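User: Assemble these into one structure.

Assistant: Restating your components, then the assembled model:
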Amino acid sequence: MISINQVTKQYKGAPRPALDQVSLEIDKGEFVFLVGASGSGKSSLMRMILREDVPTSGSIHVLGENLIGIPNRRVPHFRRSLGVVFQDFRLLPNKTAAQNVAFSLEVIGKSAGFIAEAVPDVLRLVGLEEKASSLPSELSGGEQQRVALARAIVNKPAILLADEPTGNLDPNTSAGIMALLDRINLAGTTIVMATHDVGIVDKGRKRVVELSQGKIVRDERGSGYGVSK
Amino acid sequence: MRANFVFTEMGIAIRRNLSMIISVILVTFISLTFVGTAGLLQQQISSMKTYWYDKAQVAIYLCTKTSPQDVCPQGEASKDVRNTIISRLDSGTLKPYIEQYYFENHDEAYKTFIKEFKDNAVAKYVTPAQLNETFWVNLKDPNQAPIIIESFTGLSGVEEVKDQRSYLDQIFAMLNIASLAAISIAGLMLFSAVLLISTTIRLSAVMRRREIGIMRLVGASNFYIQLPFILEGVVAGVLGSLLAGGAIFALVQFFVQGFLAQQLPFTSFVGLADAWTLLPGLLGLGALLAGLAAFTSIRRYLKV
C-alpha cells in the first residue's frame, strides 16, 4: 500500500538530511503511529507520501503509483485516493460544516446529486449531523476536527494521513477523535498518524514507527510511545 | 466539471477584489481604445489612398503676371507656351504614359477656386488673372509622375510642375505618425495592463490561499484550480475591450461622421462598418492578453 525504500531528503542549506535512508512498508488496513521529536522527519515523510515533495534519492510507491516518476498532471488524481487532516483543521471560515465537506467534492467535479447524498452521510458518521449548517467559528476544536475528518474521508480514500490531529485538543476530545479514527480504520482505511501525544500512542497499542534525526530508530507492532522493553 | 461551481468561485473572487478588477478594466479599456484608434487611422489612410491616388493629377502651372520674377521673367505665359506644352504632351515620348489631360484657363480656375473657398475671406480678394492657367494631366500609372515633372520643369513660361500626390503624401505621413503614436501609447498601456492583471490575479490567489491549499490536498486538477482565476482576468479584459469598442464606435459616430465628415464633405471617412471590423480584434486581444497574463501568473503561483 505504501512502500518507501531508502528515501533520503536533503533540503538546500540544511546541515543534515531531513530523511536519511528511510525504508518503510505499510500494508492495507494498518494503523501506524509516526512518533519522534520535532524536526525528526515525520512531516517530511508525510509530505513525501502526499507527493507534496519528492525525495533526493530512493523510491516511494503509494497505491501502486511510483511517486518519483509520476507526471505532475497525474498528481491531483493520485491525491483523490488519499485523505489528510492537520493539527490546525484547515477549514474554510466562511463556509458551513456541510459546505466545507461539499467543497472538497465540488472541486474534484463530483455531481450535485452525489454531494447531496455523501455529505449528510459522512457528517452523520463523524457525529455532526446536527451541526451541518454551523460555521467553523461556531464549533469547538473537536467538532472542527471532525468536520476536517469528514472532509478527508468523504471521498472514501484508501489512505488517511493525519498530521498531529489531536495536537490542539484536550485529552477527552482527543479520545473522541481517536475513537473515530479507529472506526475509520476498521472500515478498511489505512491510517498513518504523526503525533506527539504519548497517552494516545500508549493507549492505542498499535504499530509505532519512531523517527529521530531523519532515521527510523524503532518500528514495533503493539507498542507505546516510549521504548518498550 | 461543474461550470456552476467555477463561476460562483470566480464571482466571489471578483467581488473580493473589486477595486483591482475595476482598474484592470479601465487600463484595458484605455489601451485598447488607443489600439482601436490606430486601427481606424490605418483604415482611414488606406481608404483615402485608394480614393485620392486615382484622382491625383500632375499639374503644370503656367506663369501669370503676378508670378515671381525669377521663375517667370517674361510674365504671363503666351499662347506659344501653351502650344509647346500641348505638342509635347501629344508627342510619342509622353503620350503612352498619359491617360488624358485638359487645360484650365484663368476663368475656369477662378470658378473652381471660388467654389472651394466660398466661405473663406480670401475668395473676395482673388481675381481670375492671379490664378495660374493649368494643364491637368492624368497618368495611366500615377507613379510615373516624375517623367512629366522632368519634361516641363524649367520650361520657359511654366511656373511649376507639381504632383498632387506630394500633398497627399504629407497628409498620409502625418496620419501615419499619429497612428504610430497611438500604437506606442497602446503598447505601453497594454504592458501595464498585463502587469496589473498579473498582480491582481496573484493578489486574488493570496486572498484565496486556504481554498487553493484545500483544493490541492483533495486532488482538484490544476485546470480546475486555475480556471476561476483565468476567467477572472478574461472577464475583466473582455469588459475593458467592450468599453474600448464602445469608445471606438462613439468616436466614429460622433467625431468622424458627426463632425469631420460635415466639415470636409468631399473626403471619404471611416464609418461604423470599419469600426465593426475592428471590434472582434479588440475583444480577442483583450481576452487573450488578460487570459495569458492571468494564466502565467497563476501558474507560477500554483505549483503542484
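The CA atoms of residues 201 and 277 of chain B lie 31 Å apart.
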